[in-house]
Specification:
Length: about 400
Amino acid sequence: MSKTPQAIRGTQDIFGADAEAFAFVVETFERVRKLYRFRRAEMPVFEKTEVFARSIGETTDIVSKEMYSFEDRGGESLTLRPEFTAGIARAYLTNGWQQHAPLKLAAHGPLFRYERPQKGRYRQFHQIDAEIIGAAEPQADVELLAMADHIIRELGIEGVTLHLNTLGDGDSREAWRAALVEHFRAVQGDLSEDSQERLEKNPLRILDSKDPRDRRFVADAPKIDAYLSDDARAFFEAVTSGLDAAGVRWTRAESLVRGLDYYRHTAFEFIPDEGSEAAGRLGSQSTILGGGRYDGLMESLGGAPTPAVGWAAGIERLAMLVGDKGEPKADVIVVVEDDQLLSHAIAAIGRIRSAGHSAELIATGSPRKRFDKAVKAGAEKIVAFAMRDGEEHVRIKADDEGRIRLEGLLA
Ligand code: ATP
Ligand code: MG
């Protein structure tokens, strides 16, 4: 016998309760994004490699280690998308979507990163994603974060808090960066190997390091607040007061930087509170949603300066917190107790489904046992077709209201 090929490491075949939780996350996202009037976009799963390399930054983990890049048959370097934002920015520029600015966009689908697979971390994973492009006002950040918070609440997830920081404008960020380089250079030899390398290329990333050797130097590293320009400070204050007005709970996270080069001003993550049930379920892969303002991104792709802000959240990680949604029971089960009534039953179940009730047909196995099967399946309403004294007989098991509704559909 030939051997069955295995699935690719880091991919998942999502089924059963996990698939229901996954679908619940996507459905909730779809519902809430309409409340906030975000428009849907369907994006290509692959792009030219430079779309990601130029925007995300050559020195980031994603570009330097995690991309699935390959040459296609025409010799062009293509990459399976590791995130949505860069592709959306490319689309904004190549399609002239400037005419829609400020453009509120929502997307969801698979992403690909070559990472070490573990619980909550996969090589093909999925995100919901929201972006506001062409809006420079802090109000855009507030609206985007209010939507994120709303989705998490609608999912019934508790014990998760918005961690918020500002990276300042270009000037503030440069001054802060210089101070960080000075701080970390003094202890260079004690940093992790990765961070020694980051020191030259991308020192802000040291703040993001999970290595315990780095953590103790991160704690007393210079804080952005000392370097903020008046404009950057006013911007951040407008964001925080807007969040307070919107009733979004947040906490200041002074060393939160996010891994990518393109962020300015607001940067944020939603993280489970320490010791919460959510933290327990996620283990070490704790960030469920992250994002920020990326005013520099469009320029890196050759576009005009364009202010924008966005976030992405891992569907799998959200689904883990949603817990077991179970598989929903049918509203109605239609039982065929006599096979000569099959066509009647098929016609009836069609009408029941058209009226918006989920319905299952039981028409196989021993006819005498079919009704019991329906009862065991736990349906609240059962419609059984049988012959009695040579006549068709329809039996309905339901409460009074259900019976009246079903009789209307069957008449
Ligand atoms: P992490 O620090 O966990 O690697 P990240 O900063 O790389 O996250 P982002 O690029 O900001 O993550 O992606 C946003 C969200 O997408 C994350 O908060 C997480 O929920 C999810 N995510 C990212 N990478 C993966 C992955 N490999 N598998 C599953 N979910 C992921
Ligand atoms: Mg990552």
